[in-house]
Amino acid sequence: MNIRVGNGPENVSAALQIWASRRGIGLEYIQPGKPQQNAYVERYNRTVRHEWLGQYILER
């Protein structure tokens, strides 16, 4: 089994690599600048931003 992940620093951590290795899970990294290769996660992120967080007024 493999998990497709982005190349962000939170996803290339040693802890994630160790966790996956111990469980026999491979990590497949998407190409930098190609978020469409991880379309399910991108769709989820869009839903969170526009449909959930958009219901609230957030001050910066």
From TrEMBL:
The lineage of its organism: Bacteria, Pseudomonadati, Pseudomonadota, Alphaproteobacteria, Hyphomicrobiales. PROSITE patterns: INTEGRASE. One of its GO terms (biological process) is DNA integration. It comes from the Bacteria. GO terms for molecular function: nucleic acid binding. This is Integrase catalytic domain-containing protein. Residues 1-60 form the Integrase catalytic domain. Transmembrane segments: none annotated. InterPro entries: Integrase_cat-core (IPR001584), RNaseH-like_sf (IPR012337), RNaseH_sf (IPR036397).
